[in-house]
Amino acid sequence: MDKSEVMQWLERRGTRRTVEGLPHYGIEAKHAFGVTMGALLSLRKRLGKDHALSLALWESGWYEARLLAALIGDPQRVTRRQMNAWAASFENWGDCDTVCFHLFDRTPFAWEKVRQWSASSRPFVKRGAFALMACLALHDKAAPDKSFLALLPLIEKGAHDERNFVKKGVNWALRAIGRRNLALKAAAVTVASRLADSPQAAERWVGKDSLRELTSPAVTRRLAAKRSKGKN
Question: How far apart are CA 213 and CA 115, in angstroms?
């Protein structure tokens, strides 16, 4: 399928009900067909990896086309320029998180962009930094603990940002790092505890919400079982 055929496929499968439901989930998109993620994942299986098509779909500006672009892009062909350009055009948490989760965190430049984007004044670029942190914690199995420990100061600094989608990204990053293993959990809990005691509302929310999960019996049991099996 080429770009035209994919766009026609999306238009045929979109529904007004799905479009109207996007704001309920905090997603604002200028152009949306109303196609579910399940349908997009089904189409991804047919398309496979197609980086040229991925770039063309992103340029269309349509929400679902951009989600599909993330699903079929080749992380080894992604450039720094592409990452910066896409991040600058993120419209909402949906395209931001999907791109970070399915594509950008697998590129050679992910760790570099975490640091760069965390200093951005643009809300979804900055969220992208923390989404990448969370996705790296989930997917980069070879990364050493020290790489994630080095991100905690950025998280603590980012927690000061009161913008809703930024602070939620910060929270996601802190929880994901803390769920990686017991040592990182202890470090994340220390940061979360400091934030929970902050007089600043955004920091306090990030700290308390992260503590709620990281100190839960379910997380403690899972990490203990992981350690007993010899997995870090």
Answer: 25
